[in-house]
Amino acid sequence: MRRALGFDYSEFERSPIAFDYEGLMASHGLSLDDVRAIQQAAGVGSTPLIELHNLTDLVRSYADPGMGARIFVKDEAANLAGSFKDRRASVSIHVAKQRGYEGVIAATSGNYGAAVASQAARADLKCIIVQEAFDSRHVGQPEIIEKSRLCEAFGAEVLQLTVGPELFVVMLELLEETGYFAASLYSPFGVAGIETLGYEIVEQMRALTGAPPTHVVVTHAGGGNTTGTARGLRKAGAVGTQVISASVDLSGLHMASDTDFNKKSFTTGHTGFGVPFATWPDRADVPRNAARALRYMDRYVTVSQGEVFYATEALAKLEGLERGPSGNTALAAALALARDLPRDATVVVQETEYTGAGKHHWSQLAFARANGIEVRTGDPRDNVPGTSIVIPERPEQLQATDVDLDRLRRSYVRNALQHAPAGYRPTADDIVFLAEDAHTTPEAVERIVAELLE
Amino acid sequence: MDERTSCEQGDWVQVERVVLEPADRAAGLPEDTAAQPLRMWVKGFARSTARIGETVEVETMTGRVVSGTLVDVLPGYAHTFGRPPAELAAVGRDLRRRLAAYRAKGGG
Q1: Residue B103 domain-assigned?
Q2: Could you tell me if residue B63 is inside a domain?
Q3: CB A258 to CB B83 under 8 A?
Q4: Does residue B71 form part of some domain?
Q5: B-interface mutation test, from A58, A62, A173, A263, most B Cβ less than 10 A away
Q6: Do residue B60 and residue A157 have CB atoms under 8 angstroms apart?
Q7: pLDDT band for position A148 (50/70/90)?
Q8: Which of B30, B62, B107 sits opposite A60 (nearest CB)?
């Protein structure tokens, strides 16, 4: 793995619990301006930031007087391979090329695969994408099949696997066999690539409204999107901006289950990744995950599948933007949140993703029906992941449900203690690290640790 | 387009192979997953003539040689947009009406 990443994580370890996070993030030696220059040369970034006047007025039509924030969207679908993932891929591919690797490998069923394949093609590097694509019947999520297609369109070798976490073993064996670069989603390079997204949002909002946004809503899965965007906001001086992560609620579905695989109508942006990665980021395919969402979330909300499909349809019909659907998770949350914010508040939905055959809310709903999921209109609170998708009847029904961040922090601290050797007592330095990593105070961490060790 | 039942050397094809038999799978998997083999599909240029169901070696886009069961010749994609879900058909019309009503009252 060290050979495949080109650097050694162990030099950043401080104890069985703590590590030098900022040291790791600076290890690539690239400044934000360097990253911007790399991305400009790669045809990535500088995407439009668009005000959604019609959706804003729609929300105001049912909000209380004086309420209804202005809603904006960063149209990341304008990147070469159609999503913000191009930002991550561009930096990883730049590093791989500079260090003389012959090719790159990534394990992902998401937009990141297409982004790596596109950037690898431009850099004249070979590319292998490993995807979890099918259940044991060889039935694939249309959204994933479309991403297989796009990776192959960019000349990548795509390994399509059935369900199972051994995908990462397959990837490690391929790294061994080929000597290619591991373009992990969770490397410091990848996350540095997203900082430009947060930075651009502040620049563009300053130009449009004279100030940074009051709120940024981020679709959250593995944590890179929240981490990179929040770091970019801070680097641009937007210290007062609230960062709200949003995931589709898929609670109750097992992510490694063959039968549950095709009962999900979202393949990313959901709680099946969002919660475990927030509470234990180091479950990733690198020794230390650069994407640490809990560090940066001010709020974490969930929405239901039906609400995201509804928001996707509304975005197309009212704003002339056919995007998503997974990337519209933050949009659905933003529509709900904007209702309860004053009119002078500004809410930025920080990404869109391309849409196409298979990767479209119509095909996802048809696929859900074909897999025995009930699709109907009604109250979205009646949605049951894996059983029913309830499309709202009215926009007033959109609701963002807060996840208890203190519960996640407790779970994170428990995971950190469990991954340390048996009997290890956290030091004062560990407590400070855990507090920073969980976006809370050392006192709060000490209380959690005392309770857990009782 | 007729489906081909065999390939010539150099044809673009898809092969399937079993990566792990159920007995060799990772510990801690849900039962339904653990009962199935981990299977893999990959595309490449056939290194010899073969019929569907026979073992063949392919050279992938990165130049690796992978052996597997031939499952398709000139494999394509069949995913679509599908029919519009009835539950979403009227969303645009209804939201536009609401927006018009709001603006007619002086909102916006």
Answers
A1: no
A2: yes
A3: no
A4: yes
A5: A58
A6: yes
A7: very high
A8: B107
Q: How far is B2 from chain A (nearest CA, A)?
A: 21
| pLDDT tens sequence across B42-63 | 999 999 999 999 999 999 999 9
Query: What's at A347, amino acid-wise?
Result: V
pLDDT (tens digit per residue) in A152-173? 999 999 999 999 999 989 999 9
The two tokens of residue A321 are 């933007």
Judged against a pLDDT cut of 60, whether residue A426 lies above it is answered with: yes
CATH number of B13's domain: 2.30.30.760
Query: So what CATH class is A2-6+83-187?
Result: alpha beta
Instruction: Render pLDDT for A190-238 as a digit per residue (tens, 0 to 9).
Output: 899 999 999 999 999 999 999 999 999 999 999 999 999 999 999 999 9
pLDDT, averaged across chain A = 94
Q: Is B61 on the interface with A (CB under 8 A)?
A: yes
Tell me the residues of chain A between 147 and 176 that have a Cβ less than 8 Å away from chain B. Answer: 149, 152, 155-166, 169-170
Cis omega before residue A16 (within 30°)?
no
**Could you tell me the two tokens for A433?**
């690290």
* Residue B63 with chain A: CB contacts under 8 Å: 126
CA distance A234 to chain B (A): 32
Q: Which residue of A has its CA nearest to B99?
A: A58
Residue of A nearest to B41 (CA): A160
Q: What is the ipTM of this complex?
A: 0.95
Residue A436 predicted with pLDDT over 60:
yes
Over the range A112-142, which residues count as b (16 or more CB within 10 Å of their CB) and which as e?
bbbbbbbbbbbbebbbbbbbbbbbbeeebbb
Say what the pTM is: 0.95
**Cβ contact A196:A230 at 8 Å:** no
- A166 vs B19: CB contact, 8 Å cut-off? yes
Q: Which fold has domain A45-82+189-402?
A: Rossmann fold (3.40.50)
Q: How far A426 CA sits from the closest chain B CA (Å)?
A: 29
Distance in angstroms (rounded) separating the CA atoms of residues A216 and A330: 9
Tell me if B95 is assigned to some domain: no
CA–CA separation, B73 and A238 (whole Å): 54
Domain residue limits at B67: 6-77
Same topology between domain A2-6+83-187 and domain A45-82+189-402: yes
Residue A254 sits at the chain B interface (C-beta within 8 Å): yes
Cross-chain residue pair B63–A258, CB shorter than 8 Å = no
Q: Where are the domains of chain A?
A: 2-6+83-187, 45-82+189-402, 409-453
Q: How many residues does chain B have?
A: 108
Q: What is the pLDDT of residue A368?
A: 92
B25 contacts A164? CB cut-off 8 A:
yes
Cβ of B88 within 8 Å of Cβ of A391? The answer is: yes
Number of structural domains found in chain B: 1
**3-class secondary-structure state, position A63:** coil
Among the listed residues A52, A55, A110, the one whose alpha carbon sits nearest the alpha carbon of residue A83: A110
Joined tokens for residue A78: 């304008």
Contacts of B84 in chain A (CB under 8 A): 362
| Residues A230-264: tens digit of each pLDDT | 999 999 999 999 999 999 998 888 878 998 888 88
* Contact of A322 with A359, CB cutoff 8 Å: no
